[in-house]
């Protein structure tokens, strides 16, 4: 198995752990680092990870393979506007963009976008500009004239900016006007980009809207529907690119709209082959299913339900459920009649395309379950010194995997 590192953030306690998952050995513990959970971890080239410390207002670049050696695991930091909502990089990992969201406010209030150049020889250049109040998604498009694309809601749009014009902005957070604006539905939630083709994807209630880079222009294309010949209804709120299999994935949620009826929500794994143009859905079961992770020829999900939680393993080459692995219950798990995200425990999931391991947190218990996704068997449970309330957040990094080709934070 390739050399692997598991990075696990207890964002409530303010600790980031670096672990060797094959042995469970802790390699480093970063105290006072409060990961912005919604923005998550961003894989960068060279096995690095980036995340936003929401309390410090910093972008943190981490080398997990330096942990446990004489070299410091934190290789760079840069100031960014917070609360961080989304972050994304260009394929080289040199440029990073961070959008700001609601934080503890119920309404959007910030219009700040931060762009960072990590390639500067002395220290990263970090520039903040004003765009539009909201909580936008973000993607970057490479090329001779790199672009930053913001996905806005209400009114929905894709707003396109020239990266180098943003980096050249003066101090004091000036307003930045988009180069062009493409209309979108108002309910966008979920972003992905294919660096190989210059396509940008945005998940909305009506489907996955697409646009493609043509020179310095971004042109809309026909949206991809959520419905397939055998499954219909619902929508996805999350998009990920499986670069190794050239496939987009999402989780399509259907059923009653009321949050307190979440045990009746339906969930399908939705997939679309980028090169072949084929699309399908795989039923996962009722309850709460959201984020997913890519293992070695596997796509893995967690499903939370009052009747029992489970890890679901789906084949990447031929999408179908290969296994369902029961997970120990969580004290403080979502209950019938309540919402699945307010004051309850959750689960985070992590995997690497270069390793058979899957890691799943048990929120509130300070535990991470390691599972062999190929054999579909439990390997061990790691007990951590902090509780991982709200489930925490994780990333798994392996030498030579394709994770950095998904250039959006997860």
TrEMBL record:
<protein>
    <recommendedName>
        <fullName>S9 family peptidase</fullName>
    </recommendedName>
</protein>
<dbReference type="InterPro" id="IPR011044">
    <property type="entry name" value="Quino_amine_DH_bsu"/>
</dbReference>
<dbReference type="InterPro" id="IPR015943">
    <property type="entry name" value="WD40/YVTN_repeat-like_dom_sf"/>
</dbReference>
């Amino acid at each position: 198995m390739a050399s692997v590192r598991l990075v696990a953030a207890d964002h409530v306690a303010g600790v980031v752990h670096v672990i060797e998952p094959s042995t469970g050995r802790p390699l480093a513990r970063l105290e006072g680092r409060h990961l912005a959970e919604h923005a998550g971890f961003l894989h960068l080239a060279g096995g690095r990870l980036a995340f936003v410390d929401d309390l410090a207002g910093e972008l943190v670049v981490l080398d997990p393979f330096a942990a446990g050696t004489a070299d410091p695991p934190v290789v760079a930091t840069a100031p960014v506007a917070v609360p961080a909502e989304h972050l994304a990089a260009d394929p080289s990992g040199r440029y990073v963009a961070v959008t700001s969201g609601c934080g503890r406010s119920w309404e959007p209030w910030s219009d700040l976008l931060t762009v960072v150049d990590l390639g500067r020889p002395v220290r990263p250049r970090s520039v903040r500009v004003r765009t539009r109040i909201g909580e936008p998604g973000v993607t970057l498009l490479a090329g001779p004239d790199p672009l930053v694309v913001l996905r806005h809601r209400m009114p929905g749009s894709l707003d396109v900016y020239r990266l180098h014009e943003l980096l050249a902005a003066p101090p004091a957070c000036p307003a930045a006007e988009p180069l062009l604006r493409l209309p979108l539905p108002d309910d966008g939630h979920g972003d992905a980009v294919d660096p190989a083709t210059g396509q940008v994807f945005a998940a909305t209630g009506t489907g996955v809207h697409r646009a493609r880079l043509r020179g310095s222009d971004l042109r809309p294309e026909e949206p991809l529907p959520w419905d397939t010949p055998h499954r219909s209804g619902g929508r996805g709120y999350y998009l990920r690119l499986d670069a190794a299999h050239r496939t987009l994935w999402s989780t399509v949620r259907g059923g009653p709209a009321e949050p307190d009826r979440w045990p009746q929500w339906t969930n399908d794994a939705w997939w679309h082959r980028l090169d072949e143009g084929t699309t399908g859905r795989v039923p996962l079961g009722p309850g709460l299913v959201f984020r997913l992770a890519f293992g070695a020829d596997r796509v893995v999900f967690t499903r939370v339900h009052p009747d029992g939680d489970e890890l679901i393993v789906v084949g990447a080459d031929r999408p179908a459920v290969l296994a369902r692995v029961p997970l120990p219950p969580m004290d403080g798990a979502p209950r019938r009649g309540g919402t699945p995200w307010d004051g309850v425990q959750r689960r985070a999931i992590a995997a690497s395309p270069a390793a058979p391991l899957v890691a799943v947190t048990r929120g509130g218990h300070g535990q991470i379950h390691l599972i062999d996704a190929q054999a579909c068997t439990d390997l061990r449970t790691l007990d951590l010194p902090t509780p991982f309330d709200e489930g925490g957040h994780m990333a798994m990094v392996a030498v030579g995997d394709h994770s950095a080709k998904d250039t959006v934070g997860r």
